[in-house]
Design a protein that fits this description.
The protein contains 5 helices and 5 strands. By secondary structure, the protein is an alpha/beta fold.
Length: 195
């Protein structure tokens, strides 16, 4: 909140912002209880963990992280699945797709969008969990055709996908980006490169 006010031109200290928030009982939203939605396919080969919780990237497109999220829509609580791919350089969502089914077609559509938008060179690492949608041979062929290495989180290890937080992307500020949003971070990087 302090950074948001400061960037909008309001001169105020961090303490001046936090005190009224505490007095009003304003706190970060508490997440609902975690529910595992990853369904592994034991017949598919397991790729090595190439990310190893190294969430830093010096330029766009060396490391992407993919995941799917279940969304409950409307009063009927109908399910939709959102597949997203985040570039760890700026935490920007570079590819996404929606479907009523959490399957390989959903994640391939998200990957196709990311490839068309970013056109990465070779050497990219694409990381995901071991869920069945990410294990299909057709996705492996697409990755190989683009010179992309596939990495998977070990079973039961959610830490490598922790960077997949997409809430309010591209406008949400990230502490990893010096409290800039992914869109602001990428614009600043393009300006630095153009200078």
């Amino acid at each position: 909140m302090h950074r948001e006010l400061r960037d909008s031109g309001t001169r105020v200290s961090r303490e001046r912002v936090s005190r009224p928030m505490q007095e009003e009982g304003l706190v970060a939203r508490i997440r609902r209880r975690y529910e595992c939605t990853t369904v592994s396919d034991p017949t598919q080969p397991i790729a090595p963990n190439l990310l190893k919780q190294d969430f830093e990237a010096a330029a766009p497109n060396p490391r992407w992280v993919g995941d799917t999220t279940e969304l409950l829509i409307g009063p009927s609580r109908s399910k939709l699945f959102l597949a997203t791919i985040v570039d760890l350089y700026s935490r920007f969502v570079v590819g996404w797709a929606l479907s009523a089914r959490n399957d390989r077609h959903l994640v391939i559509r998200a990957l196709d969008t990311a490839l068309r938008r970013r056109r990465p060179g070779g050497g990219l690492v694409y990381h995901s969990d071991q869920g069945g949608p990410y294990a299909g041979e057709d996705q492996q062929k697409i990755l190989a055709a683009h010179g992309i290495s596939r990495g998977l989180s070990p079973r039961g290890n959610c830490y490598d996908n922790a960077a997949m937080e997409c809430f309010y992307n591209p406008t949400r500020r990230h502490s990893a980006l010096d409290y800039l949003s992914p869109a602001q971070y990428e614009r600043a990087a393009r300006c630095r490169l153009a200078a």
